[in-house]
Known about the structure:
There is one protein chain. This protein is mostly helical. Helices cover 65% and strands 0% of the residues. It is built from 18 helices and no strands. The protein has helices at 6-21, 26-42, 48-68, 73-95, 97-109, 128-143, 153-161, 174-181, 189-220, 229-260, 278-284, 287-298, 308-326, 330-348, 363-384, 388-398, 412-427, 446-463. Helix 15 (363-384) packs across helix 16 (388-398).
Amino acid sequence: MLFNSFEFLVFLPVVFTLYWFVFRGRKPQNLLIVLTSYIFYGWWDWRFLILIAFTSLCSFFSGRLIGKNGQNPKKQHFISAANIIINLSVLGVFKYYNFFAESCADFLKLFGFEADFVTLNVILPVGISFYTFQALSYSIDVYKGKIEPTDDIIEFFAYISFFPQLVAGPIERATNLLPQFQKDRNFEYSKAVDGCRQMLWGFFKKMVVADNCAAIVNQHWNEYQGLPTATLLLLGVMFAFQIYCDFSGYSDIAIGCARLFGFDLKQNFNFPYFSRSIPEFWRRWHISLTTWFRDYIYFPLGGSRCSKAKIIRNVFIVWAVSGLWHGANWTFVCWGLFHAMLLAIYNIFEINTKYKDTVKLNVKSICQITLTFILAVIGWIIFRAENIGQATAYLSAMFSNQLINFSMLYGKKALILIGILVVAEWLQRDKAHVLQLPENKIFRHAIVRWVVYYALILTITTLGDSNQTFIYFQF
């Protein structure tokens, strides 16, 4: 079920009403969340439910077995490793088997060998990478003693399948979300109102900004060989805002929706295009995934507490895996390695990247933000390309074609919307989301706030596109 669909418009108020007025109490509410989450997820294809149930069962029982063998570290290690292997095997079969089979066949052809590997005609289950990582983090954290295993299978299934963040995150940790299913929840008006505001801003970003950018990018992307440099760069910028508003818009809707039910999810985006360096960019973009890789891959490899050569090795490993996580295509791997190379450069030259202050408007910050954004756009061009050849050709054309042709500058409406977004986010860059309006002389009046809300609703209904799916559903 899509957030930007009529079905969800009906689904959400029905579930909200049942949750607070019929299924009162922690256990009935948890059961309702499981049932409605499975309806939400199975709306695409009921067969997907088998996989998420299997993943949930494996991680639930592995957690219990790890807890019961507390005096036997070897058994704990074996159980944890077995659960990781099972879950990653399921993910690998559905997401990567065909990719590696075809890549292996292509590699053998280079040496004159013909290989005809069997490929699978399977549909990639929506959100499988997200809920698999969420399930893995639970069993790993139980193994490491960071959280006690739960004996309540309903609350665990609710943790894995919680519908607001099930399909595209944020990827929650059991240490944050599971305890919220283990305690009674009371309706908080202020939390629910703030959740609605964040959802509204998320819908604006997705349906208005992202989808208007998508219309231009999709129409002209494959014309790159005949487009001037300025237009190619412009399309790259539009895709950068398309993927940002699409994905962060989903996160805003998910976080806001969770607040309607009394849950607090982790912030997933923190105005990343105001970053002053690539390392800062990755502390602000898809925070739940980057911290997952940091805690479960980078740190176990040695993190930054080793020689510079090993640090760089660790960075390249993490980002190669991160690229592959995004999809079964070499463009994603190259995108990950591109960012690994940039991060290595920052590390080698020991450039200060640990900014803790709010971004200020001065010449130095503007130059840093511009450079970081351009590097991110180059990365997004690689990410968007259908194959390595197209990525190379696009970038080559961008640096070699005619500089500018005003008749080929597309998407004026999309650019205006991007400008509105940037200004709004800049003014609210110290807030969790844009619609956390300040209590100043202007916004302290309810009528002013409601004018803003109605203006956004009107913009969404007139300029929004409810037919575009979310980009990260494919991951």
